[in-house]
């Protein structure tokens, strides 16, 4: 409760500490708008996008710009947190600066591919308060609520590095374990209800990891030519798989049984899911379009529609208002699509 109260206080502070403040923003269903990020016009190597429900902000690791950007989905105001690795030019890809972030315990955690660090950020002061060296190049960072740990995927070394929080104000991250994930890991999603973490192997498989024992509990085929994005319907136990070639699959989060599959545009990487609408968001970087699927009570997929995005627009996050935020790396912007479809049942 103390950590949650701390975040609520931070949210009030962020209302006054913004770089842009266009006022309240009400999107019409189906409307498309754009948000330019600070220093982003030269291009940004986007990767992981995520909505932080306690903080109430979209977490946008802005790659080479050297900032972690927090966006209020109600006003589209942007708060930039500096101090990460930066570069003046964008050469494509997403190998520079801060590329993944998550919230937990009243703090933000972010990985920096330039400095090979995982950093603790105080959202109240908009500052990095501690830095810890990684043993390999990072991909995803996630806070593991059941154990109070921070996990960082390191695909170049085929493992997940586990950190504990040492100290309180501010905490410091200390390595406590290594989880071997051969032929992976790609993507990471947590299920506190099941005490499991889910990630992919590159060769068309998904693994379930027991978070307390830090051991692989199950390995399932997911039907991908190249495993990429992952998302979860926690209450209903649906695990969503995004394949690079544009295949969407729904697996039973307990057994790994495939419940449904469908096709979308090519070049899929980061996907997301709205438990409020029961909609799955599937952007294709090669197809330059995002497909929205409805998810039925039994896990079936139905294509609701598709929206044009941009070349290389391979990542998405959805907010509670039903807006899908799609990255546009070449312009250093986010494309905001107001989901026009009613909730699926």
Q: Mean of the pLDDT scores? A: 93
Radius of gyration: 18 Å
Helix content: under 10%
Quaternary status: single chain
How many distinct beta strands?
A: 28
Structure commentary:
This protein has one helix at residues 2-14, and strands at residues 32-36, 50-52, 57-61, 68-71, 78-81, 98-104, 107-112, 117-122, 127-133, 141-144, 149-154, 159-166, 172-180, 186-191, 196-201, 205-210, 215-221, 227-233, 238-243, 247-252, 258-263, 272-274, 279-284, 289-295, 301-308, 316-318, 323-328, 333-338. A hairpin with a 5-residue loop joins strand 24 (289-295) and strand 25 (301-308). Strands 1-28-27-26 form a 4-stranded antiparallel β-sheet, with no helix packed on it. Strands 2-3-4-5 form a 4-stranded antiparallel β-sheet, with no helix packed on it. It has a 4-stranded antiparallel β-sheet with strand order 6-7-8-9, with no helix packed on it. The chain is mostly beta strands and 345 residues long.
